[in-house]
Amino acid sequence: MSTTIEQFADLSATTLLRFATAGSVDDGKSTLVGRLLHDSKSVLTDQLEAVEAASAKRGQDAPDLALLTDGLRAEREQGITIDVAYRYFATPRRRFILADTPGHVQYTRNMVTGASTADLALVLVDARNGVVEQTRRHAAVAALLRVPHVVLAVNKMDLVGYEEKVFAAIAEEFTTYAAELGVPEITAIPISALAGDNVVEPSAHMDWYGGPTVLEHLETVPVSHDLTGCHARLPVQYVIRPQTAEHPDYRGYAGQIAAGTFRVGESVTVLPSGRTSKISGIDLLGKSVDVAWTPQSVTLLLDDDVDISRGDLIVPSGDAPATTQDVEATVCHVADQPLAVGHRVLLKHGTRTVKAIVKDIPSRLTLDDLSLHPHPGQLVANDIGRVKIRTAEPLPLDSYADSRRTGAFILIDPADGTTLTAGMVGESFASPEPVKADVDYDGWDF
Hints:
By secondary structure, the protein is an alpha+beta fold. 18% of the residues lie in helices and 33% in strands.
């Protein structure tokens, strides 16, 4: 690899940035990612040789850098991205986890997956086409998922003569639209991924632009993964009871801390039952510790033999979320089959899965003007809207605005296990409306 060992010697001291790319078909996402990896010297020699050979076989004079990320045969044949491609690379200043997500409207669900944990969304626009519907959809998804930073990369500037007025018009239109969605920070950068302008190296063709290159911005944008000050939450994944001669009475509650910090001696509440106890011990990697924090995987020991099972949530007694059977959320529908009022579904929140029913769909977002279409009756693939759901059992829910981990859920088709919808609890840019009158849905009377 071209990057020196010294550059990787102290990666523990560098920060990590998770970011996702998005954009319409043929906007050049894979080429941008390939250029970013190539010019930052993050490509292995054998990888580059394979791309050069594949490009030559297809009659191309120069290496097609999009092949560095488009690994599926169908992607290479069609020249599009279908699956989410994750890439890991580093510079002396920062480590990166990149999710190259598809641009075709059919694969918007993959963009939701890739951006759900992202600190930054990199949205590409073809300078010749400007802001299109899929651009608006990606901006809406980024806002819905509370991605804190959005970069607008206006690509293929070489095909519009590197004209500043073309870039300025697109940047203004996108910035105005994203700001109305509530995106907190937007940075616009004019680039040519094919030629390498403003990707890693500054462009010699756009002296009118004085901002950072894409890599410079990625290296310097402020990010924080410190969730230790957030509401402490431990979704229980497994109850450990060895019942051996060495550990006859051991009862531990294992899981990954979703947020916050837990300490020995702290009073905790188990939800949804509401039972309370105190932490008598914390086991981490086979050793006892006094304190543990996110995202560590731990086993909590309690003073009392509390009835706890997979799906329960352990929280500090003084900072417990409310439990409810009535869930109001903004969702992005990702399945081919519609989600309609009255549908029976499974709702998965953390490690808990419960039966649920769609009681109402108050509104659907219209991407063109951000207006709300009231009571559409159903959501189809890639729609964004508000839903009201009644669950068979109480759930402890945080607002998504407070916690991206414990404020999120998915809806599942109980017939075949298909993921239907990605949901975010609480308010968003789509305003809720009153619930319609209750209806008896064939025995689902919870």
